[in-house]
């Protein structure tokens, strides 16, 4: 325990500088559904619970309307007036902004455990520069009327909380990259490496490791993202599919946390998933939305990557030998697997289950490693990989909590930047999709 009796400090990094309308020669362009109003609603949801002696609730809110300040908020207990600190306008796509917020929270509100929630639009591991059109007028994007935390469905480029080098991706138009924490005013966002950097530097400065990383954003519950963050926290909570604009039910989650502040990091991870599923089930009015939310034990992700690496090696060797049974089963799995709003993202379990069921050959090495990965995803063994998973909608009933990159064709020029690609999954995709070179 720390010197205080505080058990948890809950920090929400709110990248709400979205919805800007960009003037273009061919008309006005808006990348995102505006998030600022929803941000104020989510802060009100947190205020409905408020901090206690055992749980501190903090938020850093960057907005589109205030171009001079970003707000750091301590949400007071018992509906008291919030405590707001105005800091200079932040670029939420700069890892230093996230790092400094985490350090501020840990140093000013020390606790036994820390949860950091990334609040914004998101798209998994991909790292395309969605703001290139603002510098390069040749790329045109359209606004979205979808009430979800994602880019326009008509947008050719993908997005994410996560971007490593804007300059390098400015000229690309391949629709194959991911990120999170978008900032329309700064034309920037965080890529996987910068997200990892922010958490690593915060831990180096404070000596404290975050217990839970949450993604109140779309498409972030991916093997690639979990593997990137495996050393930065113990648990990750996020959605495989796009999230509704209303996002997480903060009142329900924080109400339960403050009532039982002694819960473990795994307990909180399970709680978030449970309350998310319950909220949308009760709010569905007879028509269940297509939602997903899952909690991943990051300490087991290394084991998963090793098994997937062995699987990729066996599959690639058999494909090189022109094994018809493997080619047939792999192609069938790619066609029938559950894909999400981003069609390059597939459910890992569903993909391997179809592959296992369709494989008619007798290679025991392949079947053994397929069974190993499938069991990691589903068996009640300790420690579990996916500790909680909730879905709704018939199409999503087969998904088990973690997505993986598996495009129908082609190969992202950025995939090899992800730590996970080096396990051999990237080489398998290139080989099967007949993409030569890195």
Order of helices and strands: EEEHEEEHEHHEEHEHEHHEHHEHHEEH
How many distinct helices? Answer: 13
State the major sheet.
9 strands, mixed
Distance between the termini: 48 Å
Plain-language structure description:
Residues 18-32, 127-146, 148-179 and 181-188 have low confidence and may be disordered. α2 (95-108) runs parallel beside α5, α7 (250-259) runs antiparallel to α8 (265-282) and α10 packs across α11. The chain folds into two domains: 8-299, Rossmann fold (3-Layer(aba) Sandwich), CATH 3.40.50; 300-383 and 402-432, no CATH class. It has helices spanning 36-47, 95-108, 132-135, 166-169, 192-206, 223-228, 250-259, 265-282, 301-320, 324-336, 348-358, 364-378, 425-432, and strands at 8-16, 21-24, 27-30, 55-63, 69-74, 83-88, 113-119, 180-183, 188-190, 212-216, 235-238, 292-297, 345-347, 386-391, 403-405. It contains 13 helices and 15 strands. With 438 residues, the chain is α/β, with parallel strands linked by helices. The protein is elongated and about 70 Å long.
Question: Main traits of this protein?
Answer:
Rossmann fold; 2 domains; 13 helices; two-stranded antiparallel ribbon; 18% strand
Task: Describe how the helices and strands are arranged.
Layout: E1 8-16, E2 21-24, E3 27-30, H1 36-47, E4 55-63, E5 69-74, E6 83-88, H2 95-108, E7 113-119, H3 132-135, H4 166-169, E8 180-183, E9 188-190, H5 192-206, E10 212-216, H6 223-228, E11 235-238, H7 250-259, H8 265-282, E12 292-297, H9 301-320, H10 324-336, E13 345-347, H11 348-358, H12 364-378, E14 386-391, E15 403-405, H13 425-432
Parallel strand pairs: 1-4, 1-7, 7-10, 10-11
Antiparallel strand pairs: 2-3, 4-5, 5-6, 8-9, 11-12, 12-14, 13-15
């Amino acid at each position: 325990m720390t010197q205080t009796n505080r058990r948890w400090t809950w920090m929400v990094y709110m990248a709400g500088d979205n919805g800007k309308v960009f003037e273009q020669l061919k008309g006005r362009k808006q990348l995102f559904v505006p998030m600022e109003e929803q941000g104020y609603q989510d802060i009100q949801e947190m205020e409905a619970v408020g901090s206690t002696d055992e749980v501190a609730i903090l938020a850093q809110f960057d907005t589109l309307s205030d171009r001079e300040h970003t707000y750091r908020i301590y949400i007071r207990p018992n509906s008291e007036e919030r405590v707001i600190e105005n800091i200079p306008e932040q670029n939420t796509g700069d890892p230093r902004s996230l790092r400094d917020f985490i350090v501020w929270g840990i140093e000013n509100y020390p606790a036994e455990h820390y949860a950091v929630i990334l609040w914004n639009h998101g798209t998994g591991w991909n790292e395309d520069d969605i703001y290139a059109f603002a510098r390069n007028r040749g790329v045109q994007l359209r606004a979205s009327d979808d009430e979800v935390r994602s880019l326009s469905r008509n947008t050719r480029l993908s997005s994410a909380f996560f971007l490593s080098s804007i300059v390098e991706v400015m000229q690309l138009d391949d629709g194959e990259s991911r990120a999170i924490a978008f900032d329309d005013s700064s034309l920037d966002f965080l890529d996987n490496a910068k997200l990892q950097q922010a958490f690593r530097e915060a831990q180096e400065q404070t000596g404290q490791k975050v217990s839970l990383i949450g993604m109140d954003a779309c498409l972030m519950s991916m093997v690639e993202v979990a593997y990137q963050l495996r050393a930065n926290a113990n648990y990750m909570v996020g959605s495989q599919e796009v999230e509704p604009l209303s996002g997480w039910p903060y009142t329900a989650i924080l109400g339960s946390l403050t009532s039982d502040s002694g819960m473990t990091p795994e307990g909180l991870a399970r709680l978030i998933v449970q309350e998310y599923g319950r909220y949308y089930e009760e709010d569905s009015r007879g028509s269940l939305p297509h939602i997903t939310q899952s909690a991943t034990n990051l300490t087991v992700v290394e084991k998963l990557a090793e098994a997937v690496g062995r699987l990729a090696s066996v599959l690639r060797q058999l494909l090189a030998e022109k094994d018809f049974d493997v080619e047939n089963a792999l192609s069938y799995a790619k066609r029938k697997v559950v894909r999400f709003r981003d069609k390059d993202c597939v459910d890992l379990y569903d993909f391997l289950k179809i592959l296992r069921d369709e494989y008619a050959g007798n290679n025991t090495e392949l079947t053994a490693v397929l069974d190993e990965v499938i069991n990691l995803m589903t068996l009640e063994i300790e420690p579990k990989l996916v500790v909680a998973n909730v879905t709704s909608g018939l199409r999503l009933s087969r998904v088990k909590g973690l997505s993986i990159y598996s495009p129908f064709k082609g190969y992202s020029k950025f995939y090899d930047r992800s730590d996970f690609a080096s396990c051999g999954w990237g080489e398998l995709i290139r080989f099967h999709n007949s993409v030569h070179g890195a």
